[in-house]
Design goal:
It contains 10 helices and 5 strands. By secondary structure, it is mainly alpha-helical. Strand 4 and strand 5 form a beta hairpin.
């Protein structure tokens, strides 16, 4: 999810009086956050001569502002998978990641492929080969559109709840953009859908449920860390998103569209 280590955070350098350091324009503004107490910080570390670095100490909690700048990216990823708030703050506030859009599209493709695979597995066609290939291609596009609409409904539900509960916080454009990026990044668990389908097993339905729970847990942590709110509000925000997403699914089912829902999947597998 993020780039760790010194090489990925060259913009975190600051100036030291009397000591040569690499100045940056970003150090003039508090664009970083302490991963422990969430307080703003002007720098992550100071770069002395000969490559000697000193991690900045937070004035609020007296702990390193970001200890992860010296960690290997694999360790940071493991901590993010464990949903540690410190790892999420490091990734969201103290790194520059611009893969939100690409990750979102790839996750939607994974979900669309899962739905398409389940749809093809449950349907038996006797039409000519060319017609079958054409129908299957458009089925995939339809599954992608449905997955995108359901995810949009999920995000709208979250933002609507937060706008009602925290109007001043939700109306800030910076908070809106940051939260959207956080939700997109924290949905990376959907990438596990492809291995779950490829390595088909009797426990595949259980794996799909666990992946769903993992994605929701990651979204929950991302909301809590980004807006610095309590667990109750984060949980209710995720619950509101799920409610609106369920309404969208019910609408598609009432229109007699195959949406590749989990219930339909399990029934087809049992039969």
């Amino acid at each position: 999810m993020g780039n760790g280590g010194r090489s990925g955070l060259q913009q975190g350098k600051g100036n030291v009086d009397g000591v040569a350091a690499t100045p940056t324009a970003a150090s003039a503004s508090c664009q970083y956050r302490c991963i422990e107490c969430n307080q703003e910080a002007k720098e992550l570390y100071r770069d002395y001569n000969h490559g000697v670095l000193k991690i900045t100490i937070c004035k609020s909690c007296q702990k390193p502002v970001d200890k992860y700048i010296e960690y290997d990216p694999v360790i940071i990823l493991i901590n993010a998978i464990l949903c540690k708030a410190q790892a999420y703050r490091h990734i969201l506030f103290n790194t520059q990641i611009n893969i939100h859009g690409k990750l979102c599209i790839f996750c939607l493709l994974c979900e669309a492929y899962l739905r398409w695979w389940q749809l093809q597995d449950s349907n038996q066609n006797t039409a000519p080969d060319d017609l079958i290939r054409y129908a299957k291609e458009w089925d995939f596009y339809r599954m992608f559109a449905i997955a995108a609409l359901e995810q949009t409904a999920y995000f709208i539900g979250i933002f609507t709840f937060l706008w009602v509960e925290r109007p001043m916080m939700a109306k800030k454009k910076s908070n809106f953009i940051l939260l959207l990026k956080a939700l997109l990044l924290s949905s990376y668990g959907k990438l596990l859908l492809i291995p779950a389908v490829i390595w088909e097993h009797d426990y595949t339905p259980l794996c799909l449920k666990l992946i769903k729970v993992f994605v929701l847990t990651s979204n929950f942590q991302a909301i809590r860390v980004t807006l610095n709110i309590n667990r109750k509000l984060s949980f209710l925000a995720v619950l509101s998103g799920l409610l609106l997403e369920s309404i969208m699914v019910y609408f598609f089912q009432s229109m007699e569209w195959d949406v590749g829902s989990d219930c339909a999947i399990y029934k087809s597998q049992d039969s």
